[in-house]
Amino acid sequence: MTPATYQAFYCYDSKLSVHLRNKGFTCLTIAKNRQTNNLFSLYVRDEELNEELKKYNESLV
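The chain above was modelled as a monomer; its predicted structure follows.
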């Protein structure tokens, strides 16, 4: 995949990132935002990830 062919999902929630990895999603990298110094995990955003994010958010309510 080249950067032009996918959308990125920047995850700043460590619990969500662990959940996604446990569900089999691949974290491309973990980095620090230069402006805020907050850590984020980077994932490829696709339909499968979007569905899992919906399920995760619904479970929080």
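Strands lie at 7-11, 29-32, 39-45.
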